[in-house]
Amino acid sequence: MRNSAKVSSRDAILGRIRQSLGREAGQYDAPKDVLDRLSAPKSNAVVPARAQISHDQQVALFEQMAIDVNATVVHTAGFEDIPREVARFLAEHNLPARVKTSPDVNISGLPWSETALEVTAGVAGPEDAVSVTSSFGGVAETGSLMLRSGAQTPYTLNMLPDTHIAVVKASEIVGTYEEIWARLRTEDGQGNMPRTFLWVTGPSRTGDIEQTIQLGAHGPRRLHIVIVDDQAS
Amino acid sequence: MNVSTSPKFKENVHGALRDESLQRALGRLKTGFRDKRLAAINNLPEFEALRDQACDIKNHTLENLDHYLLKFEENVKANGGHVHWCADAAEARETVLRICRDKDAKSVLKGKSMISEEIGLNDFLEKEDLKVVETDLGEYIIQLRHEPPSHIIAPAIHVHKEQVADSFRETHKGRDPNRSLAEPRELLDEAREVMREHFFAADIGITGANFLIAETGTSVIVTNEGNGDLTQTLSRVHIAIASLEKVVPTLEDASSILRVLARSATGQEMSSYTTFSTGPRREDDLDGPQEYHVILLDNGRSNMLGTEFQDMLRCIRCAACMNHCPVYGAVGGHAYGWVYPGPMGSVLTPSLIGVDEAGHLPNASTFCGKCEEVCPMRIPLPKMMRHWREREFEKHLSPASMRFGIKAWAFLASRPRLYRTATGLAAKVMNKMAGGRGRLAKLPLAGGWTQIRDLPAPQGQNGKTFKELWAEKQAQKARGSK
Ligand code: SF4
């Protein structure tokens, strides 16, 4: 009974929509502009001019926008400097010297033994207070990190630990969201998405108690962004 | 608010709405939302052009709604997810229950979803012996207080921190009874701790969706807390509940509309988390839900297409209209008596539950035009409220005093009937939507009514008093329940 009920609701809803939109009986194929829009997605005409700047300026804008939403940002010259930076940041904030990194070899394979940090890789559990992850990229217009889920980048690392340290390559910071989608399509094929693609703009926050903004609602209280200046001469 | 034009109204409101915390909360709308919105849009020279563009995208989508929904369905399936088309609230509730039963679920975690409120999901699932926990802090607070939301993005806006502390002490057993819960930070930390336990124990995670993307079969949630993310990632099954009009064609289209959403809502450049979810976890993924379901709810929307109310389907639930509405600002959300308050509620509620039930809501307006001015989707809210008033007039539902030309302020100043009518709504709705609407009609209405009863009784009033109506509806409800 349920299956037939489902089918009929689908048909009934589609039928009402078609009737409301004045479709002729049997003329249910999508028109060309719809098909084109879906098969070759394009940026819409209006995008903020603030991000239409040189790449160096985009990196600077990304940093400023991220700081404006309570993230902290540092630059390192290369990936090999990251463990030291993580150790420094954790010590400075009196945080536990234990981190969980994404399995991504770009992060997990760094010279962590040069620090006194206890480091494991994998998904985040309730006991993990600090995570270090890689990023797909960054978007300058709002200082947003772009993070994708995958075998190398489990999603819980972005959300469960109190402190999230995210590494982003300067070369992968772009002006707008549209540039990120274009790259994702090139890498994964059009129409394909990871299970989760996440834009992170600052740490978790809430205004639900008397409209007082507080950081660290259910996600991370601290978001620390390490920009690797991989293009610096 | 133009105080000078209706000093009497103001006095009445102060007398009637003696709820201090509500008035304090409403007073904070300016610095909390309005000033921040203004700063954000002043910071983006293209904002007006982005509004036009967002509008065009939605109009195009609505004109092709069948095509985009079918494409969305196709792509959800291609990614291993399931789509359930549901004609009305009852079917949506049953569908969610069926998924829970199939998975032998005991507990359900909820991200914030107005559609879930619209279909009365929590009460329904609880009656079916499922443990339901709201994870958004504001939703959690009102869940503990057994109240409906009073604002679409700040559901507990009417609650003050001492009340939150009381609810926490009552609910969170086994903690030091002498612990301090005086500060918002302490409250948040406790909620965070409690919620962590729920996150790791959940079977089913239900979220809403701000967008559905046809191109990829993706649902999108926009949050600040991160609760929705944990809800949908740590649960075995992710169910996204969305109404039909949430669909947009492409990732670019969603991004374009996102540029006006947070700025209009909270004045943020972008919310903390914008999460694009597609299908269940992939084979080599280390986390994520094993199943992904989308509930596609109609519940009256398909009938709005092609009518003068089609434009309402552009709404992205940003709440700018209520944040700027002098009526909402005076009475808060519960007075509207159903799920959607403020100007968008005054237009949408009659569309969804019928003009007979909600025909008086469109009068809850000063026709100052502020809502349309700030609506990022340029929805002509005052015009649509007028449409409803015309329909109501045609149906002779409206007494002469409610016809055109009446200044709503003056009307409200002398006649509290409108509020009475509005608050009476939920009881009717409850009756209409049998099975699990009880929560909506509980405390806040009684509270609202206590306040309203202090107003001078309207002349020639032939309606029933709240107490009569209440008793009658409770009796009906008792008869109607299994
Ligand atoms: S009607 Fe406009 S302003 Fe109001 S919630 Fe909807 S989109 Fe926002």
From TrEMBL, chain A:
InterPro entries: FTHF_cligase-like_sf (IPR024185), LUD_dom (IPR003741), NagB/RpiA_transferase-like (IPR037171). It comes from the Bacteria. Coiled coil: none annotated. Residues 131-228 form the LUD domain. This is LUD domain-containing protein. It comes from Thalassospira alkalitolerans.
TrEMBL record, chain B:
PROSITE patterns: 4FE4S_FER_1 (PS00198), 4FE4S_FER_2 (PS51379). NCBIfam families: LutB/LldF family L-lactate oxidation iron-sulfur protein (TIGR00273). Pfam families: Fer4_8, LUD_dom, LutB_C. This is (Fe-S)-binding protein. The keyword Acyltransferase does not apply. PANTHER family: LACTATE UTILIZATION PROTEIN B (PTHR47153:SF2). InterPro entries: 4Fe4S_Fe-S-bd, 4Fe4S_Fe_S_CS, FTHF_cligase-like_sf, Helical_ferredxn, LUD_dom, LutB/LldF, LutB_C, NagB/RpiA_transferase-like. One of its GO terms (molecular function) is metal ion binding. GO terms for biological process: lactate metabolic process. Keywords: 4Fe-4S, Electron transport, Iron, Iron-sulfur, Metal-binding, Repeat, Transport. Residues 306-336 form the 4Fe-4S ferredoxin-type domain. The keyword Membrane does not apply. Gene3D superfamilies: Alpha-helical ferredoxin, NagB/RpiA/CoA transferase-like.
